[in-house]
Every structure is written in structure tokens, then in C-alpha cells.
Amino acid sequence: MISFKQVSKRYPGGYAALKNISFEVASGEMLFLTGHSGAGKSTLLKLIAAIERPNGGSVLVNGQNIGKIKAGAVPYLRRNLGLVFQDHKLLFDRTLFDNVLLPLQIAGFDHRESAKRVRAALDKVGLLKREKAHPISLSGGEQQRLCIARAIVNRPSILLADEPTGNLDADSANAIMEIFKSFHQVGATLLISTHDESILRQYQGRSLTLKHGELQA
Amino acid sequence: MKSWLMHHLHVMQFTLRRLRTTPVSSLLNVLVIGVALSLPTGGYILLQNLQSLSDKLVGTPQVSVFLNMNISQEEISRFTKQLQQHSGVSRVEFVSREQALQQLQQSTGLADVTGGLAQNPLPHAFIVYPKDKDPVALEALRDELKTWPKFDHVQLDSAWARKLEAMLKFGRLAVLILAVLLSFALVAITFNTIRLQILTQREEIEVSKLIGASNSFIRRPFLYFGLVQGLLGGTTAWLIITVSLSLLNLSLANLTQLYASNFSLQHLSAGDSLTLLLFSAYLGWLGALLSVSQHLWRMESH
Predict the structure, then answer these.
(1) By CB neighbour count within 10 A (0-12 exposed, 13-18 middle, 19+ buried), where does A94 fall?
(2) Burial class of residue B258, CB neighbours in 10 A (0-12, 13-18, 19+)
(3) What does pTM read for this prediction?
(4) Do B206 and A89 touch (CB under 8 A)?
(5) Chain B residues in contact with A161 (beta carbon < 8 A)
(6) pLDDT digits (tens, 9 = 90+) for A126-153
(7) Interface membership of B210 toward A (CB under 8 Å)
(8) CA-to-CA distance for B269 and A157, rounded, in angstroms?
């Protein structure tokens, strides 16, 4: 599903965020990505979503080579991914419903089908009752759940989450992990970056550890 | 196909809502575009009217020959025959000085003035209709007739029309230059409006791109906005022209009544109106396209 082969990424100015990274993620796998902040976790996830391009090696996602993908094909790649951001990236000028609707509008779904899917996604993260509210009225944990609803609404095969529990208390973090778990159970591939040791202990799954841009054995 | 249509409809609604949320600035933009477009359009329609006026007045060119005051009746009939036999002349009309005075009194309402004259100051005259309407041939005929004895004054009546024609040509060029310049201004206005919109919707654009929006999806609402704004501006220009022409015609009616004529300014034709609207919509669309494309390009190269 996802395969990294000797991937390196340098940012302009010479900073090497990733050095010689190789690993594979099988379909339906839930993989944790850990490491100190600045270890390269976010960069790695950005490479998968073609937000950044690798400088060396190859990144294959669903059989597509991110290093060589054309700019016009990037949107279609991203429609098969669900992205959960640490800073949520919600739109505060529209309702919860409209926030979750956005990916479906982009993908050109028909209106009635979209509404059904949006409500299902909101229901899944426990925010259905507040579909007409605006994100500003939500707590941090709720905003993160809304972000997840937006990521899963068009049923992507791969879900990427960058520090989804970063600033949350234990209860909120657990609620979010439960959502990921149920998503894993229906066959999605998940890649979750975190520096939270307790989560790793609680959910057994393969984990990769990054240190200064290098993969630890 | 249906969802595609629905999407466009949705974007259109969104555009109109966006226009409504900023009514004052939208209105001002539309007004500026309308005024800018109405200047060259107004110039164009005035020239068009002058053109049709000159076409009406010129009709067939003629050469007026004013004869010496002490010409005899035999000389007149001899000249008439000579003119009729002239190869460059199709028809000759003789206007006696009495007829000329009568016409003058009738046509221009100068009866009061001419009535006070002790004697008729007007000469006998020929009106010569040439066969060839080519300006060079006309001038040659005029120059030839000038050399005839007792032909005191020979005048080519279309000379002023040719001057008018040259002036119209100049005017058309001036209007064209104005139109091109103001078109640039219009594109710039839309460019700037869209740029400001993009700045306020930066987040939305970035998030949309992150979750798989294509560039055309992001461009679309802005293009619609530019198109609608341009179209509204064009409609405003059309209204300005139509109302102005109607007002001008009202006061012109008073003026032409005094001269016993029924001349009135023509409005924009249906074709011209359509061209104006399409052109303004296109310019709005173009300004938006340039603006949003530039922004997307900067985002990608960033």
C-alpha cells in the first residue's frame, strides 16, 4: 500500500529531515510513527500525501510514485487519503456539516448522497447533534474529532494522522483512538504519528521510531 | 453530468451570496466598471449617429455653380446645353435667383430677414449632378467648370462631408484607444477584487488543496465572481448609455423642432448591446483568471 525505499528529504537551506528511510505498510495495517518532535514524523506523512516531494529514493502510494507524480494528478491521489492534522485545519466560517461536506463537494458527489455520508461521519465521531454549530464552539478534542470526520467522509483507503492526540487530555485522546480503532477494524490502512507513549502501550500495533530523521531498529 | 450541473449551480449561488455579503464594495465595483465601459460605448454610439447623419446628408454629391450677376438669358440656355452634353455630367438643374430666394425663405425660416432686403442678392445657379462619384473625378469636374466664363463660384458640396468622414475616422481611432485602455483598467479592477477575496479565503484554499481539490475547482467560484461582476458592470454601462441617449433625445427634440427636422439619436442595436455584455463578462472572467492563477502558481512554487 505504502512503500518507502531509501527516501531522503532535505529542506531548502540544507536541513536533512529524513535520511535513507525504507519501510512498507501493508493494506489494512495500523502503524504508529513515534519519535521526538523534529524527528521527521510530519515530513514523512507529508511525503505520502505529496505535500512535499522526496529528494532521493522512491515513495510509492497505491502504486503511484510520489517523486514523479504530475501536479495535475495530486488532487486525485489525495482524494484516496484521509488527512488528520494536528492543528485540525477547520474552516471557522462554516458549520460542522459544511466542513465535513467539503471533501465530497471536491470529489463531485451528488447532493443527497453527500448529506447522508456527512451525517454518518458526524455520527461516527459523536458530533451529529451539533451539525449546525460552528467549529469555534467546539473543544479541542471535539475539533479533532470533526477533523477526523472530514478525513473519513469519502471513505479513503488510507488514513494519515499527524499527532492527533497532541494537545488533548487522556479521555479525549482515548475517544479519538477508539475512532481510529473502529476504522482499522473495517479494513482501512492507518498511519498515526504520536509522541504519546501511553497510546503505544495501549494499542498494540507495529511502530516505527524516528530519531533525527533516521529510522531506529 | 447531473452532479456536475448541480455543482455549477451551487457555485453560482455561492457567488451571488458572496456578492450580497459585501453589498457596498460590490456595488462600487460594478459602478466603476459600468462607468468605465460607458465612456467608449458612448463615444461609439455618438460616432455611429454622426455617421448615419452624414450618410443621410451627403446622399449624391453635387456641384453648385453660382453664375455672374449680369448673365443673359441666352447665355444661360447655352450653358445649360453645354453642361447637358458634358461627358462627366448626368443631370443639370437650373435654379433662378427668384427660386433661390423663395427656397431660402421657406426652408430656413429667414423670411423676416430676406423680406427686409431691397433687392434679391442671390445669383442664378446650376446644380450639376456628376456621373462619377469618385472624389478625384468630382474635383476634376469642379476645376474644369471653374474655368468656364461667367461661372463665378463653383463649389463641390461633398467637400465638408469628406472632412467629416476624416474626423469620424479620427474619432473612431480615439474611441478604440480609449476602449483598449479602459479594458485593461477593467481587468485590473477585477484582478484586485479577486486578489482581496483570495487573501480572505486563503485558509479555505489551502485546506481544499490538502484534501484533494483540483486547481479548476478552486478557480471556479472566483471565475464565476469575475464573470458576474463584469456582466453586471456591462449591464450598468448599457443602462447609463440608454438613459443618457433618452435624455439627449428629449432635449434634442426641442432643438430639432425649431429647425423643423425630426432627427433623433439612435440607441445601441441589439447586436451591439449583446457584444457589450459579452465583452464585459469576458473581461471580468479574464481578470479573475489571471488573479487566481497567479495566486495558485505562487502557492505551488512556494
Answers:
(1) middle
(2) exposed
(3) 0.76
(4) yes
(5) none
(6) 999 999 999 999 998 899 999 999 999 9
(7) yes
(8) 59
- Asked if B124 contacts B97 with a C-beta cutoff of 8 angstroms, the reply is yes
Q: Cβ contacts of residue A169 below 8 Å, gap of 6+? A: A141
Residue B176 has which C-alpha cell? 478604440
Q: What is the CATH number of domain B62-157?
A: 3.30.70.3040
Task: Give SS3 for A134.
Answer: coil
What ipTM was assigned to the predicted interfaces of this complex? 0.88
| CB-based contact A91 B213, cutoff 8 Å | no
- The answer to whether B214 contacts chain A (CB < 8 Å) is yes
- Give the start-end residues of each E strand in A26-172: 30-35, 56-61, 64-65, 81-84, 158-162
Please provide the CATH number assigned to the domain covering A27-54+70-205: 3.40.50.300
Quick one: angle between helices B159-200 and B270-301, nearest 10?
A: 40
Domain boundaries in chain B? Answer: 2-57+162-301, 62-157
pLDDT in tens, B99-150: 888 877 776 666 666 666 777 888 888 888 888 777 777 788 888 888 888 8
